[in-house]
Design goal:
Layout lengths: L16 H21 L9 H11 L2 H27 L3 H25 L5 H25 L4 H43 L3 H15 L3 H9 L2 H8 L9 H11 L3 H9 L2 H10 L5 H14 L11 H20 L3 H17 L2 H8 L2 H9 L8 H14 L5 H7 L2 H8 L9 H21 L3 H9 L2 H10 L8 H17 L6 H8 L3 H9 L7
Organism: Rhodinocichla rosea
GO molecular function, one term: cytoskeletal anchor activity
Protein name: INSC protein
Length: 522
């Protein structure tokens, strides 16, 4: 794992539209009830008992999820109001304004039901937002009562200004609420001596971090990374290490989290955990997940991880060992993903891997379908092979480990589920296996093995048949490059038409020919 201006970066889980409607229905009907009741409590008696029932019924995590859903609805409604306002749909603008007003009252009431520590700043913001929402509703109602175009035109700018202020107060309130909740959870982690309370707080923090990058920034800013690494340095909390490390991996997807990790010597702590054989496999796997996150080639802010280079050999050695001894596909995936990212992070990692016989270990793992059981795992393995293949010594390792046959098999990688993420992983496997073949085929022995295992016909098929490569241009380019390298080493392996169309022209011309090729002509 991608991402609140409110918060515009709020993370939304992609779900079926009917399911989303069913989930939102309760909030919508609550809203209609609130319209009728004017946000007043049903009873003023036995409030404490009612609140106790509510707080025992839902956990902090559930309450936050409810709050975030309500916030998403309000944010969406405010956007739609702006759109309707642009089209002068005053009836719709007013009805949606009434609805937003009710949602805001509901959200504030719900939050105040489960929280006991609202600050004075929070109460002031709540009052500002409620007052401005009431003003907004009254304003749009007045707009309905006039049909004079000039008056409506002059009122429109005022309505726009009020809408902007409502959105601003709303965003500030949500930011404050989330910051306060992060602070409360971190306070529980740092001050509680109870493992149960700490575990619950870490779980809630993890759920909060899953809501998107903005929440991760809030957690990091409030000292979340520091508090979690403090746990990972105390043996008495070993049972909490896997969950704590999983939460750290989520938070460290943002720059603020990485800076905090660097400040507390987080790399050294992760290296100590990975090299300590007394830790469980689950702990090692989650530490590998943190390494995979902070070395991701997609991040643009890894250059400050100077301490990583100091501990890289220890970390790489431990990760190779974890790959070799992995008891499940998930553990192997996390360890190999960390290794794959490290090979992008620094070229010295490839030399260390070569010394550790990592290629032999990875190739052996690929023959165990229980361990390397998904295209995602194969993607990590072939990424490592592709990055290592720039070293001349890799050719003999590939031959000895029957790696050419494995690369040939990877050229046939196909999604069985039709899932877009899986299909994309399959494309990456095909592309990187072709890249690895192209790089390694500079060695005559590898090229000979590739011809022996019928790599040339498969590469031609991938070039000429768009469905075989899932219409991927990156796979096509990689296959053309590999085919051209093999054609130099073994020109007899191609028919004249293949040579004339796929090898002889400039690569860009062959690429254009293949991308315009109809399936029926293949």
């Amino acid at each position: 794992l991608p991402s609140l201006s409110l918060p515009s970066s709020m993370h939304l889980i992609q779900v079926d539209s009917v399911q989303r409607w069913m989930e939102d229905l309760k909030l919508m009907t609550d809203c209609e009830c609130m319209c009728i009741l004017q946000s007043k409590p049903i009873s003023i008696e036995k409030d404490e008992q009612n609140e106790l029932i509510l707080s025992s019924q839902y956990s902090t995590c559930d309450n936050l999820q409810l709050l975030l859903k309500r916030a998403w609805i309000i944010s969406t409604e405010l956007t739609r109001i702006a759109q309707k306002l642009e089209k002068n749909r005053w009836q719709r603008v007013h009805s949606m304004t009434v609805r937003v007003n009710c949602h805001v009252h509901s959200m504030i009431n719900e939050y105040n039901t489960f929280t006991r520590s609202s600050s004075e700043e929070m109460h002031q913001l709540e009052k500002l937002l409620i007052d401005k929402c009431s003003e907004f509703t009254a304003f749009t109602e007045r707009c309905l009562q006039t049909e004079d175009e000039e008056i409506l035109k002059s009122m429109k700018s005022c309505v726009n200004g009020t809408l902007t202020t409502v959105a601003q107060y709303f965003g500030q309130l949500i930011e404050l609420v989330l910051t306060q909740e992060a602070q409360n959870l971190l306070r529980q982690i740092e001050l509680s001596g109870s493992l149960y309370v700490m575990e619950s707080a870490i779980s809630s923090l993890f759920s909060l971090a899953q809501e998107g990058a903005h929440l991760c920034r809030i957690i990091a800013k409030e000292g979340g990374v520091v508090a979690l690494f403090k746990i990972c340095r105390q043996d008495c909390f070993r049972c909490l290490y896997p969950q704590t490390l999983r939460t750290l991996a989520s938070i460290c997807c943002v720059e603020e989290g990485m800076h905090q990790l660097e400040k507390v010597d987080g790399i050294l702590c992760l290296a100590d955990i990975l090299t300590d054989t007394s830790h469980s496999e689950a702990t090692h796997a989650e530490a590998a997940a943190v390494i995979a996150q902070i070395t991701s080639p997609h991040l643009t802010f890894t250059q400050h991880l100077s301490s990583f280079l100091e501990n890289m050999e220890e970390i790489v050695t431990a990760l190779v060992k974890l790959c070799q001894e992995a008891s499940s596909g998930e553990v192997f995936l996390l360890a190999s993903a960390a290794l794959a990212n490290i090979t992008f992070f620094d070229t010295m990692a490839c030399e260390i891997l070569l010394q550790l016989n990592a290629m032999k270990i990875l190739l052996a793992a690929c023959s165990d379908k229980r361990i390397v059981d998904t295209p995602y795992s194969r993607d990590q393995v072939v990424t490592i092979l592709a990055n290592m293949s720039v070293l001349d010594q890799c050719a003999s390792e590939i031959i000895q480990g029957n790696g050419v046959q494995l690369l040939m098999e990877m050229l046939f990688e196909k999604s069985s589920s039709g899932n877009p993420a899986e299909a994309a992983a399959c494309e990456r496997v095909q592309q990187k296996s072709a890249v690895t073949l192209a790089r390694l085929s500079r060695d005559p022995e590898v090229a000979e093995a590739a011809v022996k295992f019928s790599c040339i016909p498969r590469l031609i098929k991938l070039c000429r048949s768009p469905t075989e490569r899932n219409n991927s241009d990156s796979v096509l380019v990689a296959c053309l490059a590999a085919l051209r390298r093999l054609a130099v080493m073994s020109p007899d392996g191609l028919e004249d038409s293949d040579f004339q169309q796929l090898v002889k022209p400039r690569l860009v011309d062959s690429f254009l020919l293949c991308t315009n090729m109809e399936e029926s002509f293949v």
